[in-house]
């Protein structure tokens, strides 16, 4: 037959179709997959035939013709989108896949988290409020480049689509949200969708059960395999245009296809299909896992397959289609492996093989009898015999061999239905030994699903060409099928190899939702090169398929990006850069300016000089000038003034009695006024009594009448906390260190701008030697101010000052020494006091040392004393035997060595007073005014009570003056009064009388040698007041008080040995022994540029603290959100800076006040800052523990402390019953009194900061309780509106965890082990905790987490005070949370994790955001809006574990919030 002339082919549809058959009824397939059939040719012959489909509908259609040279907007836009795809598509796909993998990982990880319980009604109420707010919230525009926004939007869109959200819902979401981020979009979808809608959209499978990738379902379901971390996604049938056309008829035929047990189409032998697939190692359900089920049966099957292959090889003729030995080798290897199986039995296996072989032979015989003989028969001459479907692939190659030699196969034929079928010759090269497409398909499918079955069949009825179909039945019943519809091959073998290539390409490149090609990026990374091993003709086919796939995907992606661009455009905003520049230019400078524009500055120099001259001429001034000139410092007046003229800083070291505190400020003032200069002099004092007394004295010396301080007629004033007595005419002001630092804050200057320091010309720092944290910080500030204020003069004064060190700190400034004027003091020590009084200490008494505690524990129960028990709580040093001189009696030596020096010897003090005042005449001259130094207010109160009960000291001949910082200013000033003749006074004071103030008539001092100071407890991680021995410099100051008017007498109640060998030379600076949190906050509110950051500022101190302490302080402030991670102060930080307490307890108090449970919070905070009220006497441990457990509430040490204090407070209502109550319940009456005093002090701090607004009558009552006499019987309760929820312990616990976080202990759900969340250390309950009984079963506490206040390392890491924590409250109030809606998890600072449904997750997130803004507004003193009040009400109900009403909530909270906000 003559060869036909090659002509242009008619437009025909692509010659094969693909179909995916789901396990259940499939949704209708869109027409775009099958309805449009376009002409197709090879890429080489007709490139335009494979043009990309229309961007809008996915069809392959030509665009509107455009004249040559004419501009086409559509073409330009298409080109621009294509450039965008080439540049960003791969990056977008990688980000989508990475995000999806992360989500899936998080989902699997979240299954191990404990569940988060949230009431459904509360959750729905929260989401309802959130939805209402979202509808009313305005949209904000994005100030970013469009390209960046579009790229992020593409990732968001791709992830949402592959999560399963349908196209319309995703488009609506992206148009509705303000931004383009994934989290915002997911939140919108969950907020605006019901759980039923989400369940329909998102069908997230358990990836542990996914053994093979699935074919994608409809667009409304979730494609889990798109990001699965398990095997790569399934080779689902791609939804392609005409190149992969699918007909309805082919779907019908495919629906009947199944695995080997399913009847085959007519004319097909089951064994032939098996043989054919086995010859190419297709996966027919056999695998290593399958063999392990029954090795004997599998042995029979494998041996039968090997036998059939060997028979087939013997029948094959020479020529093309050489047999593939790889299959036989693989089967033989598997057969040998099966024989080694543990359960393999050869006899049984051989019997099974013979039975199976007999069945196969019988089936083959029956097939031949029915005319289905597989042997070759001569084809009619001139005709090509249609190959039998039942024949093996090699037999098929031989059939028609003579026909092809006689007649050439045409390029195309017309099928029975009139369609043109293109004939392609896909024959293998001669002697081809490589892998065939069928082999590669079988291997690929086996890797994806070891249980999948691949089968082939012949379709169509044409006699000249063969068309084949391929079916893959995946595990679970999922079926994928492909057919050749308009392409044919000369024989069945070529057709099967052809359709195998199509199936292999489809399996290798899966489809995905959203962007096309997502499956490719996710699955084919390791399989992109195996097509190179295909025969040449099949490689060409692969290239053709790949080219069409890429063009189709690009067209689909262009359509997607075009749509996303329309979404982005309304979101992009523009900002006027010129406006930004003008705004920046308008920002006021923070540099300090000179604002000295007071009223007095309006006076001329002549007026100032005239006014001062008139004052000097007054009688009062001249009378006081005589006394002033007698002071030692008067001789140095000119030198001091001259030194300040020449230097900016002066260091003055003046001994006690020289008059420096009163005279030096007056010298400077008088010098400035005499020259007619304007001046503003501030003198800082460490204590308010010093500031008041010095102001009154200097005012009197300058000729002012009594009571004129702070008035218009006086030049002198003072300012202390809660009391400012200054006037605009004040030129000299005495202030406390704290007030001086407040003056450096922003807005403290005139008119609310700058600082008050801007008006100061001279500043004097008195008592620098005390090295308080405030004075040291003030030195840092002043050193920085010197550079900014060259006109500022600074004087540093002290009696026992290391002048050289201070001078060096200020760059070598001049030093001036001024001698004092004191009388000699007779110094006596403890041994002298005991020798003088004859007082004895015997073993077993309350003042005796406990030399053998272990022995005493074993003794029988005896009487116990509160003082001795409290001493046992302190650390006991090793006793040192004191050797005295021979002049002391043996009784004195024994008593000195037996006395516990930690105890205040009240009896010895009384004996000393009796000896000095009555019994020893040689000492009576020292009795007119006696000063007794005590460590604290409790000791002062006890000593005072003891003296009052004494028959002589409590009579009219003596006046008793307690002196403490909490005593009112009026009562403090009374100590300076000189009693009338015949009346003697006794002053009982703390170290407030040590320096700063001078009681002029003191002649005798009794020094207990102790003081109470703040120290940072490294173990407890908190600053606490502790009783310690004073330093030698402190002792010198104390005895110096007795030599002001005559020769004095001093008894130090510690041994001379301790004074000489054990006491420190000077006290340790507070900056080295206190927490730096308060100071760090103060640095942030300063309006003076000191350093770059907190650490930089503190390292500039005279004695800089360690870097560890600085970082610890910063970390604690960030933990409580007083500072941001970048060290910016927050509204809460500004409030905490005014509360001189531990920042954790300070935040606890603030939150408790906002939640209306302030009274129990004050008790808990005060108790944690003081000693425990519970006592454990030796021999009474069991009774004390039972008494303590009697106060236990909700397994919380914090609530137990509150309950014990409240019970004692009620008992105090019955006079005389309180001490009996304490003894019965093993409570310390003294400690409970101290707790009440601390409660009042903390309440006063809250009022001082204006955080709590109360009326004047309440403040008056509080001051009466704090500073009045008989204060021990007065209790102070917070205002009712701040204590409305005092009995709601759940709300109190919420405030507690808000303050103490991250001091949290987690309870392992499986093992019950306790671990801290900060460093994951194992921890145990301390025996003193009420939860100690749960040590072995902490899960019985019924909570997942506990908060703690103190944790200390001993034999174990012990938590002392613990209490249960509500998980929801912790998520709402603490740390930073990370909600993952799709992964169904929520994490707190990546340390605490919970499993929560998306709706619960979203509710917690919204409520937390609202509550955070509400608390910030309340801390700024702002009123709440109506919407904020609704959110606040819901939060309080939820944290209080009250179930909100589904219809409307309680109105009580709303009303109270209005009152609080208005206040």
Describe this structure in words.
- This protein has 1463 residues and is of the alpha/beta class.
- 43% of the residues lie in helices and 10% in strands.
- Strands 11-10-12-9-13-14-8-15 form an 8-stranded mixed sheet, with helices on both faces. A 6-stranded parallel sheet has the order 16-23-20-17-19-18, with helices on both faces. A 4-stranded antiparallel sheet has the order 1-6-5-4, sandwiched between helices.
- α28 (830-837) crosses α32 and α41 (1143-1155) packs antiparallel against α42 (1158-1169).
- The longest helix is centred in the first third of the chain and has 38 residues, at 73-110.
- The N terminus and C terminus are likely disordered.
CATH homology group of the domain at 825-1072: P-loop containing nucleotide triphosphate hydrolases
Strand order of the largest sheet: 11-10-12-9-13-14-8-15
Q: Count of DSSP E strands?
A: 33
Tell me the structural class: alpha/beta
Mean pLDDT: 76
Strand content: 5-15%
Using the alpha-carbon principal axes, give the shape: elongated
Report on the biggest sheet: 8 strands, mixed
Reading off the top of the CATH hierarchy, the class of the domain at 825-1072 is best stated as Alpha Beta
- Which blocks of ≥5 consecutive residues have pLDDT under 50? 1-64, 204-292, 317-323, 371-406, 521-527, 575-601, 852-862, 870-877, 1449-1463
What level of helicity do the residues show? 40-55%
Q: Give the second-level CATH assignment, the architecture of the domain at 825-1072.
A: 3-Layer(aba) Sandwich
Subcellular location: Plastid, Chloroplast
Main location: plastid
Protein name: RNA helicase
Region (Disordered): 1-66, 226-245, 251-299
């Amino acid at each position: 037959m003559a060869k036909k002339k090659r002509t242009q082919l008619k437009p025909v549809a692509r010659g094969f179709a693909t179909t995916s058959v789901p396990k259940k009824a499939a949704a209708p397939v869109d027409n775009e997959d099958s309805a449009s059939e376009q002409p197709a040719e090879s890429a080489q012959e007709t490139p335009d035939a494979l043009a990309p489909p229309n961007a809008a509908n996915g069809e392959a259609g030509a665009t509107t013709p455009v004249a040559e040279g004419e501009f086409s907007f559509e073409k330009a836009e298409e080109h621009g989108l294509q450039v965008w795809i080439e540049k960003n598509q791969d990056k977008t796909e990688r980000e989508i896949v990475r995000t999806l993998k992360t989500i899936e990982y998080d989902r699997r990880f979240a299954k191990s988290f404990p569940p988060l319980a949230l009431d459904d009604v509360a959750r729905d109420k929260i989401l309802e409020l959130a939805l209402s707010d979202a509808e009313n919230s305005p949209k904000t525009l994005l100030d970013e480049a469009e390209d960046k926004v579009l790229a992020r939007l593409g990732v968001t869109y791709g992830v949402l689509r592959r999560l399963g959200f349908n196209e319309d819902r995703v488009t609506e979401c992206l148009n509705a949200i303000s931004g383009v981020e994934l989290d915002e979009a997911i939140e919108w979808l969950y907020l605006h969708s019901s759980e039923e809608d989400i369940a329909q959209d998102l069908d997230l499978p358990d990836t542990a059960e996914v053994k093979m990738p699935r074919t994608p379902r409809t667009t409304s379901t979730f494609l889990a395999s798109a990001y699965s971390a398990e095997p790569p996604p399934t080779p689902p049938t791609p939804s392609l245009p005409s190149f992969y056309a699918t007909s309805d008829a082919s779907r019908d035929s495919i629906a009947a296809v199944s695995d080997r047990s399913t009847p085959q189409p007519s004319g097909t032998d089951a064994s032939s299909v098996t043989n054919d697939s086995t010859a190419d190692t297709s996966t027919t359900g056999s695998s290593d896992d399958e063999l392990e089920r029954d090795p004997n049966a599998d042995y029979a099957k494998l041996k039968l397959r090997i036998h059939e292959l060997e028979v087939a090889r013997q029948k094959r003729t020479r020529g093309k289609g050489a047999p593939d030995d790889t299959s036989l080798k693989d089967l033989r290897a598997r057969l040998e492996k099966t024989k080694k199986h543990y359960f393999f039995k050869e006899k049984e296996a051989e019997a099974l093989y013979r039975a199976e072989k007999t069945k196969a032979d019988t089936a083959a015989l029956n097939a031949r009898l029915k005319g289905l003989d597989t042997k070759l028969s001569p084809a009619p001459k001139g005709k090509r015999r249609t190959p039998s479907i039942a024949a093996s692939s090699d037999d098929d190659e031989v059939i028609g061999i003579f026909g092809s030699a006689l007649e050439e196969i045409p390029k195309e034929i017309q099928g029975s239905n009139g369609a043109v079928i293109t004939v392609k010759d896909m024959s293998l090269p001669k002697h081809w030994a490589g892998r065939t497409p069928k082999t590669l398909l079988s291997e690929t499918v086996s890797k994806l699903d070891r249980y999948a079955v691949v089968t082939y069949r012949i379709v169509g009825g044409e006699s000249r060409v063969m068309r084949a179909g391929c079916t893959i039945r995946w595990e679970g019943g999922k079926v994928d099928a492909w057919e050749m519809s308009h392409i044919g091959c000369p024989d069945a073998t070529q057709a099967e190899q052809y359709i195998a290539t199509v199936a292999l390409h489809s399996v290798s490149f899966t489809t995905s939702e959203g962007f096309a090609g997502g499956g490719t990026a996710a699955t084919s990374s390791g399989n992109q090169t195996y097509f190179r091993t295909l025969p040449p003709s099949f490689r060409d086919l692969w290239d053709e398929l790949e080219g069409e796939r890429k063009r189709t995907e690009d067209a689909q992606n262009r359509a997607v990006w075009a749509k996303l661009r329309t979404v982005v455009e309304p979101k992009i905003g523009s900002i006027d850069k010129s406006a930004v520049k003008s705004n920046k230019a308008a920002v006021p400078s923070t540099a300090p300016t000179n604002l000295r524009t007071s009223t007095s500055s309006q006076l001329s120099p002549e007026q100032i000089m005239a006014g001062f001259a008139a004052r000097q001429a007054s009688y009062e001034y001249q009378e006081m000038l005589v006394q002033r000139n007698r002071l030692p410092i008067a001789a140095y007046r000119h030198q001091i003034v001259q030194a300040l003229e020449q230097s900016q800083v002066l260091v003055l070291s003046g001994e006690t009695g020289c008059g420096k505190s009163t005279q030096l400020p007056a010298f400077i003032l008088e010098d400035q006024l005499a020259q007619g200069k304007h001046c503003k002099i501030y003198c800082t004092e460490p204590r308010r009594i010093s500031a008041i007394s010095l102001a009154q004295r200097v005012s009197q010396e300058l000729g002012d009448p009594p009571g004129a301080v702070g008035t218009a007629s006086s030049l002198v004033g003072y300012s202390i906390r809660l009391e400012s007595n200054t006037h605009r005419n004040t030129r000299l002001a005495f202030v406390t260190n704290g007030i001086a630092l407040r003056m450096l804050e922003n807005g403290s200057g005139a008119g609310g701008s700058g600082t008050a320091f801007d008006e100061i010309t001279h500043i004097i720092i008195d008592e620098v030697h005390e090295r308080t944290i405030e004075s040291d910080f003030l030195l840092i500030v002043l050193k920085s101010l010197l550079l900014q204020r060259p006109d500022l003069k600074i004087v540093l004064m002290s009696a026992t000052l290391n002048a050289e060190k201070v001078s060096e700190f200020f760059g070598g400034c001049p030093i001036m020494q001024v001698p004092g004027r004191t009388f000699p003091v007779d110094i006596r020590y403890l041994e002298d006091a005991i020798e003088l009084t004859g007082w004895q200490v015997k073993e077993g008494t309350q003042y005796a040392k406990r030399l053998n505690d272990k022995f005493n524990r074993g003794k029988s129960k005896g009487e116990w004393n509160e003082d001795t028990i409290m001493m046992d709580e302190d650390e006991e040093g090793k006793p040192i035997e004191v050797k005295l001189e021979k002049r002391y009696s043996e009784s004195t030596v024994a008593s000195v060595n037996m006395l516990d020096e930690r105890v205040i010897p009240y009896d010895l003090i009384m004996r000393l007073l009796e000896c000095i005042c009555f019994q020893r005449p040689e000492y009576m001259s020292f009795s007119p005014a006696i000063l007794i130094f005590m460590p604290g207010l409790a000791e002062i109160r006890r000593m005072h009570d003891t003296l009052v009960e004494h028959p002589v000291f409590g009579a009219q001949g003596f006046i008793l003056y307690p002196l403490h910082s909490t005593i009112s200013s009026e009562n403090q000033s009374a100590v300076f009064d000189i009693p009338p003749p015949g009346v003697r006074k006794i002053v009982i004071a703390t170290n407030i009388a040590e320096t700063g103030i001078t009681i002029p008539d003191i002649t005798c001092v009794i020094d207990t040698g102790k003081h109470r100071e703040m120290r940072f407890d490294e173990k407890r991680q908190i600053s606490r007041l502790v009783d310690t021995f004073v330093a030698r410099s402190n002792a010198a100051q104390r005895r110096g008080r007795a030599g002001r008017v005559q020769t004095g007498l001093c008894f130090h109640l510690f041994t001379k040995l301790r004074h000489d060998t054990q006491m420190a030379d000077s006290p340790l600076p507070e900056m080295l022994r206190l927490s730096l949190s308060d100071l760090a906050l103060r640095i942030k509110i300063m309006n003076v540029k000191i350093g770059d950051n907190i650490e930089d500022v503190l390292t500039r101190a005279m004695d800089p603290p360690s870097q560890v302490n600085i970082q610890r302080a910063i970390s604690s402030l960030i933990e409580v959100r007083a500072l941001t991670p970048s060290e910016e102060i927050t509204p809460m930080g500004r409030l905490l800076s005014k509360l001189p307490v531990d920042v954790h307890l300070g935040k606890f108090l603030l939150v408790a006040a906002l939640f209306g449970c302030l009274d129990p919070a004050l008790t808990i905070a005060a108790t944690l800052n003081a000693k425990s009220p519970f006592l454990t006497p030796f021999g009474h441990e069991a009774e004390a523990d039972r008494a303590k457990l009697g106060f236990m509430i909700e397994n919380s040490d914090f609530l137990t402390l509150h309950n014990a204090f409240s019970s004692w407070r009620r008992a105090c209502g019955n006079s005389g019953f309180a001490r009996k109550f304490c003894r019965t319940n093993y409570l310390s009456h003294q400690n409970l009194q101290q707790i009440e005093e601390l409660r009042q002090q903390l309440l006063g701090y809250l009022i001082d900061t204006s955080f709590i607004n109360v009326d004047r009558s309440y403040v008056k009552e509080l001051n009466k309780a704090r500073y009045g006499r008989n204060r021990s019987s007065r209790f102070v309760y917070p205002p009712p509106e701040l204590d409305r929820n005092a009995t709601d312990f759940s709300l109190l616990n919420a405030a507690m965890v808000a303050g103490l976080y991250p001091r949290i202990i987690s309870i392992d759900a499986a093992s019950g082990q306790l671990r801290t969340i900060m460093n994951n250390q194992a921890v145990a309950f301390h025996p003193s905790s009420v939860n100690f009984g749960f040590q072995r079963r902490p899960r019985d506490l019924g909570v997942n987490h506990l908060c703690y206040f103190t944790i200390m390392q001993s034999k174990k890491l012990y938590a002392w005070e613990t209490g249960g924590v509500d998980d929801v409250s912790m998520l709402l109030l603490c740390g930073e949370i990370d909600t993952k809606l799709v992964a169904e998890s929520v994490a707190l600072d990546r340390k605490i994790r919970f499993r929560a449904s998306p709706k619960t997750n979203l509710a917690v997130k919204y409520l937390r955001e609202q509550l955070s803004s509400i608390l910030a507004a309340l801390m700024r003193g702002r009123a709440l809006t109506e919407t904020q009040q609704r959110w606040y009400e819901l939060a309080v109900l939820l944290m209080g574990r009250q179930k909100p009403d589904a219809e409307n909530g309680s109105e009580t909270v709303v009303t109270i919030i209005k009152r609080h906000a208005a206040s």
